[in-house]
Each structure stands twice: as C-alpha cells, then as structure tokens.
C-alpha cells in the first residue's frame, strides 16, 4: 500500500490499516518538500506525486490510498491522473472533516465522482433550520426528482408537521413513498401524483393542506431539449411557476423558495430565460406580499438525472466513445446533498424582499478533465481504451456559466457559501401583462412572437435561432 498525503489524515489512514487490515504499507508521498526523506510512524516519506510511478514499479504497489482532506478538487483530480496504473487499485478516505473531529470512523472506499470536486463538508445551522421548518406544513413540487427528493429527506430531519410532495412522475414518486413508509420519520409524508401547473390541482392541494412553506423545484431543465420544445418550457417554467406563486400568495404561504439556475444569468437558451422570467415575477410579487418570496440559484449537481456524469458513466460502461461538447467547456459542480443543504439554509435568510441567494459553487471544472478522470477511475486509459469525441456545443449551451448578471452584486451572508443579490425593482403590472401575452403566444403556438417577447422580458438574453418541435 502507498498512502498519498503525509498529514494528520495520512496518519489516521496508517493506523486504521495497521489495526484492521493485513497490508504491507510501503510509505507515503507528499508534495511538501520539507517532509521528503523523513519518516512518519516508521514509514518513509518518499517525495511528491512525481515519484509515484517509480514507487509503484519498485515496490510492486497493489493499492494507492488518497488521504488529503484539505486538497482542492484540482489537486485531487491531478493526483488521480498520476495514480492510474494497471492492476493498482485506487481508494480514498471520504468525509475526513468528520473523521478529524472524531464524529465518524475511518472508512476506505473506491473513489467516486464527487471526490473529484474536493469540496468541504457543509456545516449548517441546525438551530435556524429547525426554527424555520419544525411543526410546519411543507410543500415540495417536483419532489420525486433528484433535487426534490433529497430536499424532502433533508426537511423531514427537522420535524415538520407534514410534507406534501407533488410530482407527475408516478414511478419515482412511488419509490419515494416506499422509502418513507419504511423510515422512522414521525412526520406525515403525502405523495400526490399530479401536474403542478394545473390551477384546479393547486386549488385542491392548497385548500386541503394549507402549506406554510413551499419549495418549488419542478421545472424542465435540459437545455438542448428545451431549445426544441419552446412552448413546453414556457408552460412549465413560467406559466406553471406563475400559477404556483399566485396560489402561494392567495393561501397565505409564509415562505416560497424557487429553485433557480445559474443558466438564468445572461441566458443563451430558452431554459435559462424562462427561469429568469420566473425570478423577475417573484421579485415583483415580493414588493407587496405577506409571503416571503425568494430564489436560490446554483449550477450543476453531481448525481442528478440531468447531469452529464451519468451519461459519461454509461458510455464508459458500454465501451463507447465519451462525447464532450467542446475541449474548453467548463461547468460549476456540487453534490446533490451539499446543494440541498445550502438551499434549506438559505431559505432561513429570506426577509420577503425577493432575494436571490447564490450558492458558492467553487471552481469551474473542465468537462474534458472530468471525462478523463472518470475513464481512469474505471481502470481504463483515455484515448487508448476509451476514445473522447468532441461533438460541438449544443443549441443554447455556453462555454462557461456565470453566477451573477452584469447588474447584480453578490453580498456575503452570515453563512459560508451563501451570497445574496440586491433585489431588482420589477414593475408588477408590467410583468403580469407580459406573461399573459407570452401565454397567448403559447396557446397560438406562435414561435416568432414568443421568442420576441422573451427577449423583451429578459434584455440580457442572447437567444439563438432554433427550430421548435412543439
């Protein structure tokens, strides 16, 4: 065994391996020059990552363990690239922040895609979240999706009176319901198979359950697909959201949280533009409403069904080419759990001013690097075992994403990784009129006027010409 990282985490790994496993630990590598040639608990520190290849060959290394809790995602990705050898297993010690604080035991596992991010564990203010959620009736739209279902799991921890889940995905909702039927949760969880765009559905759900908090996660999110399905994007992301915002205000909801996207910033696609319109409606409504309207904006999440990572993993498993749109394309990434924890935390900060909270997504990661790392984690070699093919940016895609637009200024909050933008003044009568006009163009399937209206409503949008199939 070779351990990468000769710090406190490396010592913990050494002790755990000696205690529980019959392994021959050769020593450590560490990029800290001052440690080279020294010994740590009787094991030599050989040098930096550049010497890994020679050590693997000389000592017949069969397994490399990464024990570097403070390393950035870029460092972790580089180390993984340096530690790929045939017949050499690569493992990592996850959750080192909790381990160093004594909360959990040291536990080895295979390297996962989320390890490539190198992000610290989120520390949340449980007292504030409990005060916000406990004994409340909480409605989650799109609650069977990747973000929605994790949101439900997180909310249930803080003892709400009831969680009401609306989703039209019957199958995923069924399994989520089964999950909570077998749990120790004391709160009620009710699953409703329905379309949350429907006014009649909203009237029934709100009058029956009288939710006090609404998390609106339901949306169409696939950028290229929404480029060719303009009207569906508007119906779902704008008209459906408008109906939910109206219902929330009418039935006296205390707090409304819109799950938005970094693609709403200077949007180059219909999906992002529709999300920006909903943000603007929310900000307009907040000016004269008792409901605390707010939005939380973040980028891509690992593990979501819409993420590029499952596609890469499927292509690698099937031995196909891994398709990357462009060699320079970058994206923000965070894990589903981290994103949802920060969403719930941010929701406690809303003061009813139509705030848009922006999550700190860390560094933008090159998708090409991510693809290469995933191939390597599968025990294969990029370009040799699995070819990478560049297919070109798809309709509406950017080379990089932006967390704030040109007129927004992010201000820090009392919580790390959560920033807030200065609320924009939006004319409520004007945006309501514009959305009604947009709704009329959708009914008529008038593509040209619908796109023109969207550009008028979102002046920062740069929308390409595209064909609509519906």
What does the main sheet amount to?
Answer: 9 strands, mixed
The termini sit apart by 57 Å
**Radius of gyration from CA coordinates:** 24 Å
Subunit arrangement of the protein: single chain
- Give the class from helix and strand content and strand pairing: alpha/beta
How is the largest sheet built, in terms of strand order? 10-9-8-11-12-13-17-21-20
Count of distinct strands = 21
Helix content: 25-40%
Strand content: 15-25%
| Number of alpha- plus pi-helical segments | 16
Shape label? globular
> Which stretches are poorly predicted, pLDDT < 50 over at least 5 residues?
466-470
Describe the fold and architecture.
With 470 residues, the chain is of the alpha/beta class. Helices cover 39% and strands 18% of the residues. It has 16 helices and 21 strands. The chain has helices at residues 8-20, 52-59, 73-82, 96-100, 126-133, 146-156, 170-181, 199-209, 223-227, 230-250, 270-286, 308-317, 336-347, 367-377, 428-444, 447-457, and strands at residues 2-4, 27-29, 39-40, 43-45, 63-66, 89-92, 109-110, 137-141, 162-167, 188-193, 213-216, 255-261, 292-298, 300-302, 322-324, 330-335, 356-359, 364-366, 388-390, 410-412, 418-421. The strands form four sheets. The chain has a nine-stranded mixed beta sheet, sandwiched between helices. A seven-stranded mixed beta sheet has the order 3-4-2-1-5-6-7, with helices on both faces. A three-stranded mixed beta sheet has the order 14-16-18. The radius of gyration is 24 Å and the shape is globular. It starts with a strand and ends in a 13-residue tail after the last helix. Mean pLDDT is 88; it is low at 466-470.
């Amino acid at each position: 065994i070779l351990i990468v990282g000769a710090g406190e985490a490396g010592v913990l790994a050494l002790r755990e391996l000696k205690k529980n496993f019959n392994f021959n630990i050769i020593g450590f590598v560490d990029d800290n020059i001052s440690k080279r040639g020294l010994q740590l608990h009787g094991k030599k520190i050989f040098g930096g990552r550049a010497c890994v290849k020679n050590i693997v060959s000389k000592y017949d290394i069969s397994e490399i363990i990464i024990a570097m809790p403070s390393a950035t995602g870029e460092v972790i990705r580089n180390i993984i690239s340096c530690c790929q050898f045939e017949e050499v297993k690569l493992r990592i010690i996850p959750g080192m922040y909790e381990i160093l604080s004594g909360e959990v035991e040291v536990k080895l596992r295979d390297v996962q895609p989320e390890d490539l991010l190198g992000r610290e564990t989120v520390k949340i203010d449980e007292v504030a979240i409990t005060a916000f959620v406990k004994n409340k009736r909480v409605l989650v739209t799109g609650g069977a999706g990747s973000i929605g279902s994790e949101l439900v799991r997180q909310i249930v921890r803080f003892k709400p009176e009831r969680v009401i889940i609306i989703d039209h995905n019957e199958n995923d909702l069924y399994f989520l319901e089964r999950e909570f039927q077998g749990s120790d949760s004391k709160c009620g969880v009710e699953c409703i198979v329905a379309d949350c765009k429907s006014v009649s559905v909203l009237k029934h759900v709100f009058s029956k359950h009288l939710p006090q908090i609404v998390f609106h996660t339901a949306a169409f999110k696939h950028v290229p697909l929404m480029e060719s399905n303009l009207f569906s994007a508007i119906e779902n992301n704008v008209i459906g959201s408008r109906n939910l915002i109206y219902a929330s205000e009418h039935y006296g909801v205390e707090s409304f949280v819109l799950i938005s996207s970094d693609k709403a910033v200077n949007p180059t696609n219909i999906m992002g533009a529709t999300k920006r319109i909903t943000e603007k409606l929310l900000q307009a409504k907040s000016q004269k409403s008792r409901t605390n309207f707010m939005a939380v904006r973040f980028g891509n999440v690992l593990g979501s069904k819409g993420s590029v990572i499952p596609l890469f993993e499927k292509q690698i498993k099937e031995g196909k080419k891994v398709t990357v749109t462009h060699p320079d394309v970058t994206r923000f990434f965070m894990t589903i759990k981290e994103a949802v924890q920060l969403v719930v935390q941010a929701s406690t900060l809303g003061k009813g001013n139509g705030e848009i909270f922006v999550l700190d997504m860390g560094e933008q990661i090159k998708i090409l690097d991510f693809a290469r790392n995933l191939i390597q984690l599968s025990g294969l070699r990029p370009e040799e075992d699995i070819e990478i093919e560049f297919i070109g940016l798809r309709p509406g895609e950017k080379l990089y994403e932006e967390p704030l637009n040109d007129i927004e200024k992010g201000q820090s909050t009392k919580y790390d990784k959560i920033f807030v933008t200065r609320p924009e003044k939006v004319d409520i009568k004007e945006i309501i009129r514009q959305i009604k006009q947009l709704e009329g163009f959708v009914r008529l399937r008038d593509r040209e006027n619908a796109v023109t209206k969207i550009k008028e409503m979102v002046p920062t949008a740069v929308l390409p010409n595209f064909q609509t199939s519906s």
